[in-house]
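Okay, is this right?
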Amino acid sequence: MNAVRVLALPALLLLAGCGGNRHADTPEDAALRRNAQSAGMAFSLERPAEAAAQYGRALERARARDDAGAIGDYGYDMAVAQLAANRPKDALATVRMTRAELARRGKPSFPALDLAEATALYRLGNKTESSRIAGQVEATADPAAAARASFLRGLIADETGDMAGLDNALTRLAHPASTDQQADLDELLARQAMHRRQFQSAATDAEHAADLRRTILDYRGMARALAVAADAEAHAGNLQAAAKLYMRAGQSAAAQGDTDAARQWLRRAAVPGSDPATRRAAQQALAALPKGPVTPARR
């Protein structure tokens, strides 16, 4: 796994794994390396739009040298950065372009690239096709990508009321091999508990998932888990606790530039029943958000 890929992984909601295309004996291209390093640095500094542009330059250089492995790697990295920049439509186009470039050179796609496509489709609202592709990733020999695909399918199952699908995802994630997989398991357990009206258990599991995601720098996932905990507290009638959790989720989303999710969660923090200080803070945070259409918060 190359160093750039390692930098990219923690920042994503639903991506894991690597393409594994680059060969150690491939002569180094200094211009390509500089672009890749600049992209990795921008990503590590939470400037995903800049990272995507730099990965695009690395991808162009990979085309110039007709290097199929580098095309796969940097096409994937570019899609990762675009997803982190809240640009799922661009990420979807990048994934499909990368797959076509690989096919022209007689190379297959790889699980992480396919999972990026499933993630983009999910973020764009095409849950049926997202789940189908994620199901294919589940069947591959890449354990990290397969586990992440199971989490994605679990999210979709939860959102569509497919309890059998949610149970199946939990079974697949029953033996987590990493912190991110434990966080995935905890979040799905929280969602399952919500359906069972076990709200305090749901809140506990969701907050634990948020704590784990914070340690691996997955702030998008952390905010989402905080919102699940807030939902649980609200259903339990603990409105002040719910408002504080919604406020935390909304602040995190706003700081990441995810305005739609931030607006949804901050509005829930500002409802009657929240304590006056939290309500005022939420109203101030809402007023500071860029204006635009309201869409449902992404999970």
